[in-house]
Amino acid sequence: MPFIEAHTTFYMGRRYDPVRKRLTDEVVYYDSRDLTTHAVVVGMTGSGKTGLCITLLEEAILDKIPAIIIDPKGDITNLLLTFPDLRPQDFEPWVNVDEAHRAGLDLPAYAADVAHRWREGLAGWGIVPERLRWLQLAARYTIFTPGSDAGVPISFIGSLHAPRESWAGNEEAIRERIKGLSSALLGLIGRGGKPVEDPEHVLLSNIFEHTWQRGLNLSLEDLIRLVQNPPFDRLGVFPIDSYIPERARQKLALDLNNIIAAPSFRAWGQGEALDVHRLLYQPNGRPRVSIFYIAHLSEPERQFVITLLAENILSWLRTLSGTTSLRAILYIDEMYGYFPPHPRNPPTKDPLLRLLKQARAYGLGLVLATQNPGDLDYKGLSNAGTWFIGRLQSENDRRRVMSGLESLATANSSLNLSDAARLIADIEPRVFLMHNVHDSGGPLLVHTRWAMSYLRGPLTRQQISVLMAQQRQQIVTPPPQQTSPPTARVPAAPPPPSTLPGAAAAQAVPPPPADLPGAASAHAVPAPPAGGGGGLTLLGTQAPPGFTSGPPPLASTVSQFYLPSAVASQQAVAAWQQQTRVAAQSIGSATLAYYPMLVAQMAVRFSDKKSGVFTLRRYAFRVPDVDRTGFVHWEDYAAEPFDLRSVAYQPPANSAIYGEVPPGLTDAKRLAALQRELVDMLYNTARLPVPYNPTLKLYGDPDTDPSVFQALCVQRAREGRDAEVDKVTRQFDTALDQMEERARRKGRELRAEEQELADRRREELYTKGEAFLSLLRGRTTYTLSRSSRASRWTRQTKEDLRESREVIREIEAEMQRLEQQFSKQLEEINDRWARVATDIQEQMVSPLKRDIQPELFGIGWLPHWYVVVNSQPLLLPAY
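Now predict its structure.
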């Protein structure tokens, strides 16, 4: 069968004939959905294991499937070395210098040789340069280097946050995660703590459970303090000091503190957040390939990284809906020590085992690779549905692999152990025994295709630094976690704003608002009274013109409230210098000054049954100098909402001065009219955009990152595409089977006709000889009649033979046309569903008037610092 570009299947290579020791013309495909039951790749150095795994990953990336890759040696970083133009200068910076020396060539000559080999190799497998270009553009490739700034940094220490899902109903899963985290942390400090048995492990697990049950995030600093002073008095029936004495807790805290005290700690806490969705998807929903390069780490550090990643992936899976299509890949290269046989039980083993058992339902496929078959617990790998077995080191390795296959033989009758043992006994490089439980044809030998990525071997950290230089500049480091006390959980990503400026999600904690609308960051105010010495000193009831030493008297019908001071005077002056680029030559003393303005904050509820939306947005406005009459152009005064928990309704106890209240703010009727006006304005203008996909009939959640909905559309489109491809493939297979059966029948007829023609020719020859003798004897009538019949039968047989050959040629041509039609149909299906996945529109949801309620409306006293800088009185924001 010819090579057909079908994105539902992976082009792995061609079938290998072990008897003739050569490749056949039969292309070997692998259905992407089969990977949801996971795959194991085993092969010694030189077997071609890395090439096979990179080939598998390349095919997945071309199908827009994201991946998280754990790379202990650095081989898989070669995925970034794709050169569509195949020019020697593209290869030259990456070729191995030692290999060039061994070849007796300088770098340019060796690079030219490598480029030539890659061009010829790809062409020999039918891979055109355009396919390399598609691979390059299909995903965003990122190399993360935990604990190092060589690649893109990622924050692992900051990943001790409470799980997204609630505690109730998820206790078992969350406790599994707690057990893994506690084991990883103890392993990181050189303590192999065993769950249930070791007091240190029990203590850490209980601290996690106590804080996470309350929805509180933990930092490592929080954890250390809570180890010293646990938030509970007893563990089981024993008092805490009896179960684990204070001295032992102090020693554990000191060991944990060594992580923070180490010079390399900063690198562990900086960089991108450990967010699995963002590791797999770009902000626009397109796939991402995240490679975790951990060659530079110690073994405990590697265990820590893999455990945290696995636990976070498990937590992410529980937020998803089920699927039968492949959603993402977790690939772990060189599994040595991470999933060993019983009785060894490193912290990585349990979460990996849970992933093998649970990930299938969510479309996550695990690919586990190793050189040494003794590295793996084969009983735990009974969930793996595909095995790729390459050249092995020794007879002992082959026995280990065969023992691992025994569990599959009982579940799948197509696996013949004696045949498998014979096939792997003497296997060539780049040839693998592929056994897929989903393939009824049994195991086969596949020779892997040429990798599109340049397989130069492990990259150095310097080379990784070059590859990731641009991405490092784009990283936004997450804010450090608060160290005291543990903080309440907040949403992982702020939701998008509504169409009206000033809208914010109900659950978001807004940042400090901007300065007074329409003004710069500082305000010039009247000069302070004489005798101030260049600065402002508040003496008794004295205050500068326009300000009083206490809140002005107002009618009880006028609502007023006070916003807290959150910026120190030194910070305010520093911000002023940075914005104005004016150096503060002299700075007087600062006084807290409250400036009045109309502060309006409205809660708008959006509800829509069709899209399933039920959410809240807040719209805030700050209007200075409100007159008794006139229009307010609300859109000019939109601001960030305040956190209502920080608003006070009584004047602050500290000394402060208060600005003059505009006349419009003292008129209760005017304020009531403005509030009605604002409600009407929001009713007519506030709109909540809800993403939806009309073909898939999917609606997104406006309170989540847009990439979540985009990724969901891609996944549902992939499911639709796979179902349609299955239908078309069944039709194609049926038609092809019918044609092949016709061809077989005609072939049998052809062979029979060829035999008949041979018989007729022998008979005709015999008849002609007999006729000649008969003619000599004078028997002409009978003899000529018989000879004529023999010639006629021969001619008829020749005609039948020619007709059969013509029919066979027509069947072959029809089969070729059918294959071309099938390939074209697959391409059309892929293109159509790709368009469906990106057809994301917006549906606007409007609020009902009764769903618009004021949270704040009245005089808002905004804190400022009244300070003289360079002899100029300024009013600087303190909120």
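The mean pLDDT is 83.
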